Amino acid sequence: MWSFAWQNLLSRPSRTVLAVVGLSIPILGVIGLFSLSAGIRNLARDTLGQVEGLMVLRENVPVAILSDLPAELVHTIRQVPDVRVVAPEVWKIAPSIESRSLFARSAANLLSRTNEQRVQGLLSSTVIEGQDLVEHAKLKHRVFEDHLLPRDRGGGRFLMPADRGKRNIVISTKIAQENPAPDGRPRKVGDTLRIGDQLFTIVGLYETGSIVLDVTIVMDIATARDLLGIKEGTVSCFLVEPTNPAHLHSIQAAIQTLVPQVDARSTSEFNMNFGRIMGELDVFLFLIISLALVVGCMGIINTMLMSTSERFLEFGVMRANGWARREILALVTLESAHLGLLSGLLGGTMAVASALVANQFLGGGLSLAVTPRLLGLGLGLALVMGCLGGLYPAWRASRLKPMDAIRQGAQ
Predict the structure, then answer these.
(1) Residue 68 Cα distances to 64, 89, 117, 238, 373, angstroms
(2) SS in 3 state form for 321-349?
(3) N or C: which end of the chain has fewer CB within 10 A?
(4) Residue 303 has what DSSP assignment?
């Protein structure tokens, strides 16, 4: 019966190809969107994995740039047992850079010379991080300082307590390239960079490899407040480093008990919250793709209805020669399953090829992740949709009586 089903499909190649292509496109969409979702999850996990300790934010605020807290809370948090360092930080979206606003920078990214720069520009906006340089110098793990370029590559130095109140900054190589010097070369250590209406001196260059982190301009917290118009007694968050990482959860509970209006979050919690958001996004994406899957399934139904209508005589002869209704039903359903299988294989192949091409233009730690699980999901969906699309035509063909089928097929 398998070979018979294949022969029936091959006897009408044009119709078969159109049905397969019609269903393979939504299968490509399913695999492509979920692979992008998986890539973003991996990027978030790798990025958050570079940050250790606890981040103390205002309650119910998702990210630091939306958080505002009284700076005096630092004294309360320091009273918690096993807390080693409490480092205040200010995080905000950067004002105009070299007289270019956020909108102008986004437009420039779209018109940049390489596809990779265009993609990365769409995914990120430059932010300012103001650090309490004295407290940050006490941290064992300092993300940006740990990724400072070597001196032989022009990395310069990181900010020190002596930079307090000064307009010295550390930027990423990405920001240096996006804001070139007047002669067209990327900014380097020793150059100046105009942010807002102030001129800053670049003292260091870093490169984390993550588009989430490589959009940060690091400066002294007092300098950041002056630039951004933030009150002196305000911070965005506190970075808390424990004396022993094993006590992280007890410190977290103690902070939230002492200061009810804050959330103390670990890296794993950020990952969980992000995963929950991405899970909801996956459901939304699947609902959208479901519409395309229904359209693809309708293509299968149309193809099989046309095929069965043209083969009434064939079915009548088969019934007269002893074929049971269930065998006719199985034959037609098997043909539609073959269409689903071909659609799944084609959609999966296109997804892998598209991911390989897209990953050539993506960078900063983001890549499409087409996993065997996703390919299996796409193939399974295609088979299910193919079988569902063939059920009604198969039932219709199996219900015909032999003589009625021969009579209709002869007309």
Answers:
(1) 8, 10, 32, 10, 42
(2) CCCCHHHHHHHHHHHHHHHHHHHHHHHHH
(3) C
(4) H
Q: Is the pTM of this model over 0.85?
A: no
The Cα–Cα gap between 88 and 381 comes to 50
228 and 129 in contact (C-beta within 8 Å)? no
Query: What is d(CA 175, CA 180) in angstroms, rounded to the nearest whole number?
Result: 9
Task: Name the 3-class secondary structure at 198.
Answer: strand
Q: Collapse the DSSP code of 153 into the 3-class scheme (helix H, G, I; strand E, B; otherwise coil) and give the result.
A: helix
Handedness of CA 213, 218, 222, 226 (dihedral sign): negative
Three-state DSSP at 121 gives helix
CA distance 293 to 297: 6
DSSP-assigned letter for residue 108: H
Gap between the Cα atoms of 264 and 252, Å rounded: 6
Amino acid in the structure at residue 352: V
First-to-last alpha carbon distance for the chain, in angstroms, is 27
- The tens digit of pLDDT for each residue in 332-352 reads 778 788 888 888 899 899 989
How long is the chain? 411
Query: Ranked by mean pLDDT, which of 41-45, 84-88, 307-311 comes out on top?
Result: 84-88
